[in-house]
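Q&A log
Question type: sequence-to-structure
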Amino acid sequence: MVGSGIKRGTAELAILSVLETGELHGYEIARRIEQQTHGKLRFTLASLYPLLYRMEKRGWVRGEWQISETGRRRRTYRLT
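Response status: OK
Response body:
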């Protein structure tokens, strides 16, 4: 969850930062951001996905549907 003390744009920068290492799915993006910020910046999936969709519309990231090892569909994101 993004607290009131977090500056506007921090969430986007955090997402772009973790995607710099490569393609990830939403849960993994949220998990890595929480790890890297030592819990100071946390996302619920309900808040993360709308942000990813907006970033995709702006052309900052690209999302693709893929099939995981377990056969489930999941959307992965990467930098454009």
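Response note: The domain at 8-79 is CATH 1.10.10.10 (Arc Repressor Mutant, subunit A).
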